[in-house]
Specification:
The protein is 78% helix and 0% strand. The protein has 478 residues and is mainly α. The chain is flat, with a radius of gyration of 60 Å.
Length: 478
């Protein structure tokens, strides 16, 4: 609802619809194809198109213009306000207010969009021209010889230049006409010379014509004199370089150097191929010889008998090895079943820990039993005392009325006191018995502690002796 509250009151008539469609057409013509998306609102299309045009203009403005579909309505309105700030900095002759953009007043928005689209297209054309010019500049940096324009070369001269730069074949001894007709022509080696068009671009058409004439003369001289290809190349280079400019001469020298390097590479490649073929033939012959030696004679019964005997011996040895392997595995398992000294030490340590844990648990249980027995005896004595006091109180009320009753009451009290004394003597006797048992157990504990001390001392001495024994054994082995 906030979006509708922020929009201004603008009439919705045919003129507004027409201007809105013209705005979209302008944006589409400029390259803003998001205006075709039907899911976007009219506000998103117009504001997004204006932001896109401002970005295409590459204007240096101190305003953050960032627009996307996920912006909230407050952020979109903030973008609208920043657009209004950018337009005066771009020297836009038209003015538009934020409420007009928010209310989609296309009558006032159309001139602004028209000016922005025009500015964006102009900036795009300038960018293209600058990029193309920079590309040409870099191209001429790498190829300065193509800087000045030249007229198109003559086809006849191009053919002569192409013939001039073909590979010069070595002279062949003359043969009879029958031999020439019978022998097939050898395939020519691949030419590494440039085409006529590349040479024409490097040297110029007029210079190519002069070089072609000089080449024809030198070719006739070569055929008459019987020189080889290298001598002919040196003579040709001397003749051709006389009428060339310094730039063309440097280019020609670089081309000839490249040709020489290419010829050397081809020669090395051909020699390597011949060497590989010879090595391959040699290896094939060796393989055939070894296969012939390794092939058994099928028609030799003695060889077959020897082969069968050795095969049986191999099978027998394999069976023996398998049996020995099983015995070794059995002995290894038996050795693994015997614990080592370290494992015995670990077992002893774990048994001691388990014994201590069981002993502590047993001691705690005995304490709980003793506490329970003590509390049970205390409860029993308290119950007896309470019953005795209750009986005394009841007897006193009954015996207070007569002298015989009082006498009988006193006799009962005497008997009660006598029983209490007897019970006390029994408890004291039991206490003495328990004390003597405690003393006996204490003496046994002291004896066991002394025995444990002696055991630890003997164990320490035994370990030291074992270490000395191991040291002496190692010294003897050395």
């Amino acid at each position: 609802m906030a979006a509708f509250q922020l929009q201004a009151d603008v009439r919705d008539d045919e003129e507004q619809q027409l201007k809105f469609q013209e705005c979209l057409d302008l944006l589409l013509a400029a390259g803003y194809f998001r205006a075709r998306i039907r899911g976007l609102s009219a506000f998103d299309k117009l504001v997004g198109g204006m932001v896109w045009c401002i970005e295409m203009c590459s204007m240096d403005v101190n305003v953050d213009l960032f627009y996307k579909d996920e912006l909230s309505i407050g952020q979109k309105i903030g973008v609208t306000e920043r657009i209004i700030e950018v337009l005066p900095q771009m020297a836009c002759p038209h003015r538009v207010e934020p409420h007009q953009i928010q209310g989609l007043d296309c009558v006032h928005i159309f001139p602004v969009i028209q000016w922005l689209v025009k500015k964006a297209l102009e900036n795009q054309a300038e960018t293209v021209a600058y990029t193309v010019g920079y590309g040409e500049f870099l191209f001429l940096e790498w190829h300065p010889e193509l800087a000045s324009p030249r007229p198109p070369p003559d086809r006849c001269l191009l053919r002569q230049a192409e013939e001039r730069f073909r590979r010069v074949e070595r002279p062949v001894a003359p043969k009879s006409s029958d031999a020439e007709s019978a022998a097939p022509p050898e395939p020519a080696e691949p030419s590494l010379q440039p085409g006529a068009e590349a040479v024409a671009a490097m040297l110029g058409v007029g210079e190519i014509a002069q070089a072609a004439k000089a080449y024809e003369q030198q070719t006739r001289q070569l055929q008459e004199s019987g020189l080889d290809a290298d001598q002919h190349g040196r003579l040709l280079a001397a003749e051709v370089t006389d009428g060339l400019s310094p730039a063309a001469l440097a280019t020609l020298e670089a081309i000839l150097t490249s040709f020489q390097e290419a010829d050397a590479i081809l020669s090395e490649d051909q020699a390597f191929k011949e060497e590989c073929k010879a090595e391959y033939t040699k290896l094939q012959d060796e393989i055939s010889r070894l296969q012939a030696q390794a092939a058994p004679a099928d028609d030799d019964p003695q060889t077959e008998h020897e082969l069968a005997r050795r095969t049986a011996a191999v099978d027998r040895l394999r069976a023996e090895v398998a049996s020995a392997s099983r015995q070794v595995a059995l002995l290894e398992r038996q050795l693994d079943d015997v614990p080592s000294r370290a494992e015995i030490g670990q077992y002893q340590k774990r048994f001691v820990e388990l014994y201590n844990q069981v002993s502590s648990t047993h001691k705690e249980a005995k304490e709980y039993y003793a506490t329970n027995n003590l509390l049970s005896d205390t409860l029993r004595y308290l119950e007896k005392e309470l019953a005795l006091l209750n009986s005394v109180a009841e007897s006193y009320q009954a015996a207070s009325g007569s002298a015989a009753g009082r006498t009988e009451f006193l006799q009962q009290l005497d008997s009660i006191v006598l029983n209490i004394n007897n019970n006390k003597k029994k408890v004291l006797a039991k206490k003495q018995t328990e004390k003597r048992a405690v003393d006996v157990l204490t003496e046994q504990l002291d004896g066991l502690r002394a025995l444990a001390r002696n055991y630890h001392a003997a164990l320490k001495q035994f370990r030291s002796e074992c270490a000395a024994n191991e040291a002496l054994t190692a010294a003897e082995r050395r």
